[in-house]
Amino acid sequence: MAYCVHCGVKLGESEKRCPLCNTAVIDPAQPHDPSVPRAYPVRTPGQQLKRNKRFLLLLFALLLLAPALLCLMIDLLLGSGVTWSIYPSGALALLYIAVAVPILTPKLWDIASLAADFVALSGYLFLVERVVDSRPWFFPVVLPSLGLAVLLLALVALACHRGWLNKLSCLAAICMAIGVECLGIEMILSNFVLDYITFNWSPYVAGPCIFIALVLFFINGNRAVLEEVRRRVHF
Prior knowledge:
Oligomer: single chain
Order of helices and strands: HHHHHHH
Radius of gyration: 29 Å
Helix content: 55-70%
Distance between the termini: 49 Å
Number of helices: 7
């Protein structure tokens, strides 16, 4: 019985390489014979542990349900009804949806996540508006702001997945979307608060975002500049 010269592990008959450290086995008295069964099992790249996704999601739901129920019980015992507990409970529900949807829909995780997050967050904020005694703000402010954000993100995700944009141009498109979203949010807010549209702070955010996006698009479209940037930043 031979031993590895590097790590000392006991070798089976006619081993070509050490199964522990992968050191080549050179034994003139016993050359390698592929027909001899190996003494150790071979793990192929296709062998992977299967995870029970539904069980993991159930365990995650129970972990989030415990603090939500605790908040609800404290709210009921110390107050006159369900008041503040709706905020942490709703936030935990949003966290569960954000984690569960990508796991359950791996092929369409981006589109499905955007749709699920939009519906969940809209429902949560609509419920908050109903609980808080104030001027209605969900439909005139929240819904169009969320809708614009989801629309922009969906367009960027679609373009990236279809191969219309590479990594650099996807980053440029995201910067452009952030700038447009800021302009849209201030337009919606100013119309809600002042009854007319004005732009005060959003150009200071949108301007740099759009400028960065244009620079990235220019770099992506100019091969010489792109190669120089890759050489300097190693991406």
